[in-house]
Amino acid sequence: MPGNLTLEALKTAVANGEIDTVIAAQVDMQGRLMGKRFQAEFFLESAVHETHSCNYLLATDMEMETVEGYKATSWAAGYGDYTMKPDLSTLRLIPWLEGTAMVLCDVESHSTHDHSTNAPVPHSPRAILQKQISVLENLGLKAMTATELEFYMFKQTFEEAQVSGYRGIDTISAYNEDYHIFQTTKEEDVMRAMRKGLYGAGIPIEGSKGEADSGQEELNVRYSDALDCADNHVITKNGCKEIAWAKGRALTFLAKWSDKHAGSSSHVHQSLWTLDDKPLFFDPDGQYGMSDIMRHYLAGLLAHAGEITYFLAPYINSYKRFAKGTFAPTKAIWSLDNRTAGYRLCGAGSKAIRIECRVGGSDLNPYLAISAMLAAGMDGINRKLELEDEFTGDAYAAEKARGIPQSLREAAIALDGSSMLREAMGDDVIDHYVRAANWEQEEFDRIVTDWEVARGFERA
Question: For residue 337, what pLDDT is reported?
Fold first, then answer.
């Protein structure tokens, strides 16, 4: 479901005084929206064609640091501009912001002379996914995906949480609210605003529920083609933060905000279809209804599970989530409807058959995560990899099963050494994100944590 506003409808709304602001946003490496707010009249005169942004936006960390070591840009290269090209199919109303519309932009190289020579920036998240989609289309295929989103909501505001150093903050509920109607009724003023606002923005919201710990929420968006799914994901995350802030609440998509609480995930459901909407993962005669294509695809996911983990778990904190008995996986194995496995077969025996990757945390960038999984799955198809036997039972207890990398350092090494991802995405793209992973590790290694001080201040 793309944006819900045509250019002509925007022109009419601007003329009528209903819309006065247009946000033009690109997606950064962390999956955040970065861009500008335009006076609507100027957007229609000029920025509807293109605008510009500093190229450091795709070579920075969570703190917006100008990180050294990137080939794409640097102080020596002068940190020039990229061109932001609005994708008008994503143009939409933003109901929770007064008089506001939004459009997502593709990121292109910037030529001061001949803009017709502008080319997509290879390491921009949207371009990475578009490349994988193009590979599929050339084979007569398309990927349908859905991302679930979990987060924690707090009684405090973002500002109060920040001032407190994120200590002593209270989750919106006092007990596990998984599927709990009464407790979620107490949070409904915020969650209802999210569902209504996002649906009004053209995001096909299905529903929300309490998740598996106190203050934990889950929001579900209807499946769509891969690019639309990723677009919906980033708009949803940004919208949830803005709506919570407007309601005086804070929330976090940190994968593991507390060692005393379960982590937050972003499970990714995926399947392949023909361009004329025939399901390619379904074969009524196959095991559980799995076609040979699905078996090869899943075999590819498993064969490259370690290599793609960085794109599912991109931060130091991401790896704190992988813990026994928390519904977060520790093993990269597949199983039928088994929430202890990293890859769960859903919709068995029906056209809705699909694989759910449970490895990704709520901190992932959906464009990168989906791209990596598509590349791995397609490698499985191209090489006709045989699918290993399904796992049954408690995967947490399976000591000899294929494990998920236990740290960002381990995942970065696997990413760097992935010939499959280098072939699918390009060396420059992989080198760019290996640098991002290494920088994150370098920064953590440099910092003295609260845990170290509390543990050793007196007793060391």
Answer: 86
Count CB-CB contacts under 10 A for residue 146: 21
Angle between helices 226-246 and 366-382 (to 10 degrees): 160
Question: Which neighbouring-strand residues pair with 26?
Answer: 34
CA distance 111 to 353: 46
pLDDT number for residue 1? 53
Is residue 111 scored above 80 in pLDDT?
A: no
- Is residue 212 within 8 Å of 262, Cβ to Cβ? yes
Diameter of the chain measured on Cα atoms: 69
Say how many C-beta atoms besides its own lie within 10 A of residue 74's C-beta.
Answer: 16
Q: What is the pTM of this model?
A: 0.96
Whether the Cβ atoms of residue 40 and residue 22 lie closer than 8 Å to each other: yes
Residue 20: Cβ within 10 Å count? 15
Tell me how far apart the alpha carbons of residues 199 and 217 are, in angstroms, rounded to a whole number.
17
pLDDT for 405-420, tens place per residue?
A: 999 999 999 999 999 9
> Which two three-digit tokens encode residue 79?
């940190």
> Do residues 377 and 301 lie in contact, with contact meaning Cβ atoms separated by under 8 Å?
yes
